[in-house]
Target: IMPACT family member yigZ
Amino acid sequence: MRDQDGSTTESAVSVLAAVGTTYVESLTVKRSRFVATVTSIGSESDFRGFLDAVRGEHHGVHHACWAFSLGTGARQVTRSSDDGEPTGTAGPPILAALQTRHVTNAAIVVVRYYGGIQLGTGGLVRAYGSVARAALDGAPLRAAKSTSRVRFSVPIADAGRIEQAVHAMGAVRASDYRVHSVSFLVEVDASDEETLCDRVMSLTSGAASIVDVDRVVA
Model:
């Protein structure tokens, strides 16, 4: 499912099943060869490294068009590039392949080996979109798991009961004991985020401070 702004909701999202693996598909249209490579990414830095690797593998191609999607919902980040092709004929159809299949934390790069025959804008849109979809069809997917990382601070007097409660609900990633307070970083299923925050506030009679909540899709 996608929100009105085009972002995907967590309940409908897929990610590539194998992290770090690439999947390749090719398509020839009027002697132009399109090669699509798809992989999983966890950050824009990951994507840049992937793009450089694909360009290095296909040294000398004139166009390395791409799109990627990271995260979901309001925090989703999507980017695309036509890389010199006519505006809107390459990057957007590649991105549309990710969006229509509700795939995130993934990137697709499509290189084109020109065959000497003009394809026109419509032909380019169809070719880039088709090979991107074919690459995704060949990549095993799984349902994305959404987790929340909640950082909060509680009075030192409540630290014992809070630590016991949060260990029962999720994984305590970090704790920092100070003279008068303790800070915790706890990771739980996204569906348990509100329950965790309510529990912490209840056990401290409202004295806790929720510092930050970060949603992670993996």
